[in-house]
Amino acid sequence: MSSLADTLYQRLPAIHRIRDAEQGYPLRELLGVIAEQVAAMEENLEQLYDDQFIETCAQWVAPYIGDLIGYRSLHGVVPGVASPRADVANTIRYRRRKGTASMLEQVARDVTGWPARAVEFFQQLGWTQHMNHRRNAAHYAPDLRQWQRLQWLDGPFDTLAHTAEMRRIATGSGRYNIPNIGLFLWRVRAFSLTRSPAVADETLDGGLLRFDPLGHDTPLYNTPLSEEEISHLAEPVNVPLPLQRRWLKAHLDDYYGEGKSLLLEWAGASPGDAPQPVPRQDIEICDLSDITDGGGTLIGWAHQPAAGSDTIAIDPVLGRIALGTPPATPLLVSFHYGFTLAIGGGEYERGSAAPPTQTVSGGAALQPALDAVQGGGSVEVSDSHPYQGTSTITVDAEASVTLRAGNGNRPLLVASGGIDLDLGAKATLILDGWIISGGTLSLPAFADDEPRKLILRHCTLVPGSSDPALSVSHPFAEVELESCISGPLHIASDAEITLQQCIVDAGAADAIAYRAPDDALRAGGVMSLEGCTVIGKVHTRQLDLASDCLFVARLAASGETWPAPLWVERRQKGCVRFSYVPHGSRTPPRYHCQPGEGDLQTRPHFTSLRYGDAGYCQLRQATPAGIRRGGHDESEMGVMHDLYQPQRETNLRVRLDEYLRFGLQAGIFYPS
Question: Residue 71 in contact with residue 84, Cβ under 8 Å?
Answer without folding.
Answer: yes
